[in-house]
Design a protein that fits this description.
Elements lengths: L2 H5 L13 H21 L5 H22 L4 H34 L12 H29 L8 H28 L3 H17 L12 H9 L1 H14 L5 H30 L1
Helix pairs in contact: 2-5, 3-4, 3-5, 4-5, 4-6, 4-7, 4-9, 5-6, 6-9, 6-10, 9-10
C-alpha cells in the first residue's frame, strides 16, 4: 500500500477528519430513503399517522361535540380541528422515541458505528421522515374535518401557514422524544414517560375546550402551555378571528428554543451511545 493511499482522507471527509456539508447531506438523503423503504416494507408503521386523526376527529365530534356546544357539533368541529393539529405532532413525536429505543435494543444503531457518516445525520434523517408522517396525518385530519363540516373562513395560504406551523413545532418535539428514547432503558419506559408528558400538555390546553371554563390555576398553566398557543394560532389562521401574530410568534419561539437546547443534547447522547 502506497503512502499516498494511507494518508488519503476518507471520501466525504475534510483533511481534518470532519465530514463536509455535501457529504453530510448525501448521508441524510441516503438514510431518509432507507427509512422510507422501511415504511414501505412495514406499512403498519404508518398506522398511527393514518388512524389517529380519523379516530380522534370522530370521537370528539360525536362523543363530546354535542355536550360542548349544546348540540351544535359543527361549531365544535370548527373549534377543535385546528386544535388537533397541535396534538397530532405530539403523538407522532412520541412514537419516534420508542422507535429509536427499539433500534438501539435490536442493534440497528450498532451498524452505524463503523460507517464514515456524521452521527447527526442519523437523527436528522429520522426527523425528516417523521415530519413527513406528521404532514400525512395533518392532511388526513383536515380531510376528516371538511367531511364533518369544518369551514375554512380565511384562505388556502392561511391554512398552509397553520399546517407549516404545526409541522415546525411538532418537529421540534421529536428531539425531546429522541433524547428520551436514547436515555431510557426500554420502549415501554419511553412510552410511559411520553404519556406522563403528553396528558397534562394535551388536556391542560385550549385544544379541546376554551380555557375560560377552567379553574384559575389550570387556566394559568394553559397560558404557558405551547400547545395552547399553537392551537390558538391555528384557529386564528383558519377562522380569521383573534390575534395571529402573538400566538404564532410564541409558538415559533418555543420551537426554536426546544430545538436549540435539546437537539445538541440528543446528538451528543447518540455519539456517546455509538462511540
Amino acid at each position: 500500500m502506497s503512502a499516498a493511499t494511507m494518508t488519503a482522507p476518507v471520501r466525504g471527509k475534510t483533511d481534518d477528519g470532519r465530514i463536509g456539508l455535501r457529504a453530510n447531506l448525501r448521508h441524510i438523503g441516503a438514510l431518509v430513503r432507507r427509512n422510507f423503504m422501511q415504511i414501505r416494507n412495514e406499512p403498519f408503521s404508518m398506522f398511527d399517522a393514518l388512524a389517529m386523526p380519523i379516530v380522534f376527529s370522530l370521537l370528539f365530534t360525536y362523543v363530546f361535540g354535542g355536550a360542548m356546544t349544546g348540540g351544535n357539533r359543527s361549531e365544535y368541529v370548527n373549534y377543535f380541528i385546528p386544535g388537533l393539529m397541535a396534538m397530532g405532532g405530539l403523538n407522532i413525536a412520541m412514537s419516534i422515541g420508542t422507535g429509536v429505543n427499539d433500534d438501539f435494543n435490536k442493534g440497528v444503531m450498532d451498524r452505524f458505528r463503523t460507517l464514515p457518516i456524521a452521527r447527526s445525520s442519523v437523527l436528522i434523517a429520522k426527523l425528516v421522515v417523521e415530519s413527513g408522517r406528521m404532514l400525512v396525518s395533518t392532511v388526513i385530519l383536515m380531510i376528516m374535518g371538511f367531511i364533518q363540516g369544518f369551514e375554512l373562513k380565511t384562505g388556502p395560504l392561511e391554512l398552509l401557514a397553520a399546517v407549516v406551523l404545526a409541522l415546525v413545532f411538532g418537529s421540534s418535539l421529536t428531539w425531546i422524544f429522541m433524547l428520551l428514547g436514547m436515555s431510557l432503558p426500554t420502549p415501554q419506559a419511553v412510552s410511559g414517560m411520553g404519556f406522563l408528558v403528553m396528558m397534562p400538555l394535551q388536556f391542560g390546553s385550549s385544544i379541546f375546550a376554551p380555557t375560560a371554563t377552567m379553574p384559575d390555576w389550570l387556566e394559568s398553566f394553559t397560558e404557558y402551555n405551547p400547545l395552547s398557543r399553537l392551537a390558538d394560532a391555528a384557529r386564528a389562521l383558519t377562522s380569521g378571528h383573534g390575534a395571529v401574530a402573538e400566538p404564532v410568534t410564541v409558538t415559533l419561539a418555543w420551537a426554536v428554543g426546544i430545538t436549540v437546547i435539546v437537539a445538541p443534547l440528543a446528538v451528543r447522547k447518540f455519539r456517546n451511545k455509538t462511540s
